[in-house]
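Let us practice reading a record.
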Amino acid sequence: MTEQGFNKRILRNALGSFTTGVTVITAKSADGTLAGITANSFSSVSLDPPLVLWSLDCSSPSLKVFEDASHFCIHILTDLQKDLCMKFATSGDNKFEGVDFKNGLGGAPVFQDYLAKFECINVVHYEGGDHIIIVGEVKRFDTVDANPLVFYQGDLEYTLLSNKTG
């Protein structure tokens, strides 16, 4: 099958066989506009310096905020945060309404609850087909002992993993 012959739905389903964590990524533009999206395209890049990446669809209404923001925050969600995941997975202007957050580095919204969070400087962007790949340098992070929310074959799953013990 040639590259042009790929059925995008079948390819997406095959890619969905790779179980990933679920994140909500937030930022604040210089004019005060808040942006937040649900993404599973998060990955570590380097420990020295500490770099992470994620990608955003080029047609996203939030793209300009994420491209222009000095910082962003990646929140890895727990298995108790499906509602938060779904809230930020939809379009709309009031995603932050009713969400408890504080201002982090560069004003990026930081949620009170998460499995892990990474406050990052917005370092560089790369074109990647129909997405922009955004690389950030981790400046602050935190993690708690909880179970992750995961994405598998197009659905959110409550993980059956148990917490690590001593």
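A brief commentary: The helical segments are 8-15, 63-68, 82-89.
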